Amino acid sequence: MTGPVDAAIAQAALETPDKPAVIETRARATRSVTWRELDDSTRARAAAIRDSVEGEPLVAVAVSSTLDGVMELAAALRTGLPVFPYNSRSPQGELDRLFALAADRYGPVHRPGAVPATPAEASARCAADYVLTGGGTSGTTKLIEGRIGPHVTSGMAMLLRRTGWTRGLRQLVPGPLYHAAPFTSLLSGLLDAHTVVVQGAFSAEKTAAAIEEHGVEWMQVTPSHMRAMLESADVTPERLTTLRGLLHTAAPCDEATKRGWIELIGAHRVFEMYGATEQIGMTLARGDEWLARPGTVGKGFLTQIRVLDENGAGLAPGQVGRIFMRRGSGRRPTGADLSSVEYTVDGFLTVGDHGRVDEDGYLFLSGRRSDMLTVGGSNVYPAEIERVVMELPGVRDVAVAGRDHPDFGSVPVAYVVTEPGTALTAAEINRHCRGALAVHKRPKHIEFVDELPRTEAGKLYRRLLPEPTLRAGRPTR
Amino acid sequence: MTTPRAEDLARTHPDVKDAALLSLDGAPVLAVVPALFASAVEIRDHVWAALGDAGPRTVALVTELPQSSEELAALLPTLADTQKSLFEEPADALETQLRDIVQEAVQAPRVGVLDDFIDLGGDSLGAVALSTLVQERLGVDLLLETVFEASTVRGLAAAVRAGTS
C-alpha cells in the first residue's frame, strides 16, 4: 500500500492509538472506532480490495455518512488506487450513466461487492487520486479529478488552518461524503488525525446534540444547514461553545442567516469560502471582514482575481463582470478538466460566475453561472432535468428554472409544452423523473404552458418564464 | 551554424501554439499565442535557455499574432501585466535581496523585478518559503495574501518598506 492517506492513518495510529478516529452518532446509539482500530481494519480491507482487482482500476465506493461508510472510504483511499465516491441512493438510471461515463474515460471501474466489469481493451490508469462527480453546464454529469498532494503545504490545507482547523481536532461532517466539499473535509481530517463525527442524514437537532456531546470544534456546512439550525429551538449558543470554526461553502448565504450565525458563535468563528469543484482558485472571508463589507466572499486566497467583461477586457473595481481567478498551484493547464472552464491566455480561469471586487480586493458575487440552480447546496443544471422530461412521449418542449425556496435556496420548476392531442399529466412526468433523477433534481412543480420564450435560434430566455401559478416548493404528487 | 531564431525556440515549448518576433522601438518583442494558456515569464526563460542574453527581453501573450510593429505598439498597452513579461534588473539593494529570495523560494532560473509570482511557478509552498525567507532575512512578516497581491519583486519591496516603516 502506498500514498499519503495510508501513511497518515498509520502515523495517527502510532501517535494516538486510543483516540477516537470516527464517531457515528445516531438517534439511539453511538458507535466509534479508535485510530488503532481504524488502522487495523482499513489496512486489512485495503489489502482485500487490492487483491480483488486486476491492474489499477478506478475503485467506486458507495459512501454513506456512517461509521461503516467512512471506514470503507478510508480503506479505498489507503489502496493508493484512484477512488470514486458515489451516492448509492441515486436512481439506477443515473448510476448506469455515471459508471458508463467513468468506464469510457478510465477503463474498468471496480465496485467492491459487485461483479468485476470485463476489462476494456485500452485503459490508461486514472492519473488522479480521486474522482468526484459534478454537473456540467451542458447538463451532462462530468467527472472532476482531484489529487492528494503533500498535505501541509497544499492550498486547501493552508486555507483550512485560517478557519480554526488544527491537527487532531474533533470535526463534524454533516454533508454527504460524495459531494466535493464534505469529501475534501473528511479527507483532510483523515490526513490530520482528526476525530471525525458523522450522523447519517442531516438534522439540526442531531447536529446540535453531536456538537455538545462530542465537543465538536470544527465543521463545514452549506447555507441550508445553517438556516435549518437557526430555525431549530435546539440550537443555542451554550451548546456550540466548543465550535471554533464554521466554514460555509457551496451556495450564496443570505444575510439573515449569516448574521444569525455571527450572533450565535461570534464573527471570528464564521468563515465563508468561495471556489469551484474545478479548482480555479478560492476566496476566504472571516465573519468580521464580512461585517465590515456585508455580502463579500472575501479576498483571493493564494490566487489573483480579475473581473472581465464579455469581450475579455478588464473592469475597474465596482463594475460587475465575469470572475476570473488563477490556480495558485503552478502554471500548467494539466490536471484540470477545462471542459466547463473558460480561460485567458495568461491562465486566469472562470466557471462563469459574475461579480465585482471593491477597491481593497474583496470579491462580491452577483450571480452564479447563468442557468445553474443551487438546491440545498447541490448544483443542479436545468439542462439535465430538461433532457429527462423531453424523453417522455407527448412532450414537445420543456424549460426548467429555479424558484426561490425558503429552506433549499431554490427548487427546480418545469415548464412543459405538450404535443397537441396528448393528455400528459403532471403525475406522469413526476413518475418518470423519480426513476431518472436524484431527489433534489426532480421538479417540485410542473407548469403546463402553450409555448416557451425562445429566440429564433431556439435559445431560451429563461428569465422570461412566468412565475409558477402554485407556490414553488409545494409538491405536485 | 546559425543561431536558432527566438520564435522557433518558443514554438518548441509545449504551451505554445504560434510565435513571431517583432520589433518595437528597436527592441525585439516575442509575441506568443498559447495553445491554451501560458506563463510569459516561463516562455521567456525557455527562449533564454538557448539564446542567453541575445534573447528578447519582452514576451507578450496574445490571442492572435500582430502583423506589424504598429499593431504590436497598439496592442501592448492593452495587455494585462501577466500577459507580458518585461525583464528588468533590480533598481536597489532591497530589490536585489528580494530578487534572490524569490529566486530561492520558487527555484526559478532567473527573476526580473516585474515578474509575477505565479508566472514564476510560485504556488502555496513557494509562498510559504518566500514569507519565511523574508521573515528570516529582513525581519518583516508578510501575509500570504501580500505575496499574491504584490506579486512582483518591485511590489514586494513596497510591501516590505510599508511593513518596516
Architecture of the largest domain in chain A in CATH?
3-Layer(aba) Sandwich
Terminal CA distance of chain A: 50 Å
Strands of the largest sheet of chain A, in order across it? 2-1-9-8-10-11-12-13-14-20-19-16-15
Looking at the structure, the CATH topology of the largest domain in chain B is GMP Synthetase, Chain A, domain 3
Shape of chain B, please? elongated
Biggest protein-protein contact in the assembly: A-B, 29 and 30 residues
Broad shape of chain A: globular
The assigned CATH architecture of the largest domain in chain B is 2-Layer Sandwich
Q: What structural class results from the helix and strand content of chain B?
A: alpha+beta
CATH first level of the largest domain in chain A: which class? Alpha Beta
CATH superfamily grouping of the largest domain in chain A: ANL, N-terminal domain
Mean pLDDT of chain A: 86
Give the assembly state of these chains: heterodimer
Cα-atom Rg of chain B, whole angstroms? Answer: 17 Å
Number of E-type strands of chain A: 25
Largest sheet of chain B: 4 strands, mixed
Blueprint of the fold:
The complex is a heterodimer of chains A (477) and B (165).
Chain A: H1 4-15, E1 20-25, E2 30-34, H2 35-52, E3 58-62, H3 67-78, E4 83-86, H4 92-106, E5 109-110, E6 130-135, E7 141-146, H5 155-162, E8 170-172, H6 180-191, E9 195-198, H7 204-214, E10 218-221, H8 223-231, E11 245-248, H9 255-265, E12 270-274, E13 282-286, H10 287-292, E14 296-301, E15 305-308, E16 321-325, E17 342-343, E18 349-350, E19 354-357, E20 363-367, E21 373-375, E22 378-380, H11 382-390, E23 395-405, E24 409-418, H12 426-436, E25 445-448
Parallel strand pairs in A: 1-9, 3-4, 3-5, 8-9, 8-10, 10-11, 11-12, 24-25
Antiparallel strand pairs in A: 1-2, 6-7, 12-13, 13-14, 14-20, 15-16, 16-19, 17-18, 19-20, 21-22, 23-24
Chain B: H1 6-11, E1 16-24, E2 27-34, H2 40-51, E3 58-61, H3 69-75, E4 84-86, H4 93-106, H5 124-138, H6 144-150, H7 153-164
Parallel strand pairs in B: 2-3
Antiparallel strand pairs in B: 1-2, 3-4
